[in-house]
C-alpha cells in the first residue's frame, strides 16, 4: 500500500511538472485563454504557473528521494537479516 502511494506521488509530481512546464514554455495557455475570452488573465499567469512548477518539482524530488531511501534501506535490512541466520 505504501509503495503504491509513493509511486502515485511521484507520478503526480512528474505529470504536474510536465504540464506546467508545457504551459510556461509554450503559448498554449495564452491561446486557450484568448479563445475562451479570458485573455485579460494572461498577465497573471506567472504568479500562478511558476509557484505551481516549483511545487510539482519539489513534490517529484521528495517522492523520488523517499522511494530511493526506502528501496536502499530494504535492500540492506534484508541482506543483514540473511547474514544473521545460522
From TrEMBL:
One of the record's GO cellular component terms: membrane
Positions of transmembrane segments: 9-38, 44-63
Gene3D superfamilies for this protein: bacterial mercury transporter, merf
The entry's keywords: Membrane, Transmembrane, Transmembrane helix
Protein name per Swiss-Prot or TrEMBL: Mercury ion transport protein MerF
Amino acid at each position: 500500500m505504501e509503495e503504491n502511494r509513493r509511486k502515485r506521488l511521484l507520478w503526480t509530481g512528474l505529470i504536474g511538472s510536465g504540464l506546467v512546464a508545457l504551459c510556461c514554455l509554450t503559448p498554449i495557455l495564452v491561446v486557450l485563454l484568448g479563445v475562451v475570452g479570458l485573455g485579460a488573465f494572461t498577465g497573471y499567469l506567472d504568479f500562478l504557473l511558476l509557484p505551481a512548477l516549483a511545487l510539482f518539482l519539489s513534490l517529484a524530488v521528495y517522492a523520488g528521494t523517499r522511494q530511493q531511501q526506502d528501496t536502499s534501506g530494504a535492500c540492506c535490512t534484508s541482506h543483514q537479516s540473511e547474514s544473521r541466520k545460522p
